[in-house]
Amino acid sequence: MRYNLMLAWHGLKRFPRSTILAVLTVAMGLAATMTTLALLHQLTADPLPGRSGHLYLAWVDTVRAKSGQSTSLNGVAINANHRIKLDDAKGLLHDHRAHWQAPMASTSVEMTGSGPNPRSKHDYVMATTSEVIPLFGIALRSGRGWTPGEDEQRARVVVIDSELAQSIYGTVDVLGRELKIGKGVFRIIGVSAVFAPQPHFYDLSAFAFSGTRRDRAFVPLSALLDAGGELSGNDGCDEDAPAKKTTLFGTDVAHCATLSYWVDLPSKAQVDEFRSYLQHYVEEQKSLAGFGKPARSDLIGVGAWLSRQNVVPDNARLNAWLAGSFLLLCMANVAGLLAARFLRRGAEIGIRRALGAPRGAIFQQHVFEAALICLVGGLLALPLTLFGLWTLRLQDSGFTDLARLDPAMFGALFLLALGVGVLTGWLPAWRASRVEPGLQVKSA
To answer: Of 117, 121, 91, 115, nearest to 103 (Cα)?
Structure first.
């Protein structure tokens, strides 16, 4: 094997022009494919590895409105984001049938620090309840999360991430300091690491993908509402509600479905039990009678939810298929170049065969040569791929800022290059190994 590998390496240097052409062709095909695959890999990644498998979005439809008539504030039909009303969230929290559970909504607010020269930042906060920290595994760098008792007391406390602390206060040592959120003043009790799952699975109504837009703070839902905070967007409002309060960016939380409700269910038995509980809960809502709506509930896992919402853009998948097709075209051209290279060595191959070299050794030598060409092409494809990802990040498509080459895709690039070399060189190497030694030696 070592001897055949040495012959393959010498073979690269014997025909430099065709070697360079083959390397460039492979590099372009690999770079185009890896650029699109790296982006698609980021878009389809598990948002919370180790946790997503037992996280579920719980939904009950208790909006008192005729089926199919729910509209948004501007009259345009809304998307079904599986949000529930505040009273339902309180009822599910009271029954507490899941291991961890929390209602939540991302909302954009103005946040202002305390001190003689306060700095402000307009960013997203997550309005939720105390169990969100263990539910999503949000890492705390210092301090603590709030307790269920503080939820009930409507305590104005907040957990902020380290980037927000640095931006407003110039330091992450901010425990005990005050932060004005909306019209209320909250006390900082914890500093978390940056929490940025991609995609933003738990509230796709706010945003799906982003490298910069994320929830910077976590506040008790009741306390934020007391402070005048508004939850934007809804999945429908009660038709019989007396004078629903609506603004341009906010809706009436008492009569509109504004909250996502996520639960942690570690076992299948718990999933089945909770699904039955949700259906029983909605069937008990007698106030829905007369609106012609069936009792509807749902419990859906993270992966199924992302698939149902078509989170991964179609053009990202299409680009990956087109790049793969381009790579196949490059492989076909390289296979033709290799066939021509190998057949030019007919006399040499015939002499080796006449001296006793088996066909397997001939085949191995030429497959090695094809693999080496494609590995060199992989080395050249690396900077081309990084350049392609950089150009993608320059585009403002809502998700292209995720176009980066992580260690897994770095390794995949060279595995793909090796696979392309073996597949591309297999047929030319097989053809070279079938050369008849007698005819070649006679003609030589």
So the answer is: 91
Residue 102: φ, ψ to 5°: -165, 135
Of 19, 39, 46, 56, nearest to 409 by C-alpha is 39
pLDDT in tens, 76-121: 334 468 899 999 999 999 999 999 999 999 888 999 998 778 888 8
Distance of CA 183 to the CA centre of its chain: 34
> Hey, what are 349's tokens?
């191959």
Sign of CA dihedral 95, 305, 257, 161: positive
DSSP annotation of 150 reads H
Q: Distances from the Cα of 112 to the Cαs of 10, 165, 390, in angstroms?
A: 68, 11, 34
CA dist., res. 186 & res. 157, Å (int) = 5
Which amino acid belongs to residue 378? G
Asked whether 316 and 44 are in contact (CB, 8 A), the reply is no
Give the tens place of pLDDT for each residue, 153-211: 999 999 999 999 999 998 999 999 999 998 899 999 999 999 988 888 888 876 777 66
218-255 core/surface letters (b: 16 or more CB in 10 A; e: else): bbbbbbbbebebbbbbbbbbbeeeeeeeeeeebbbbeb
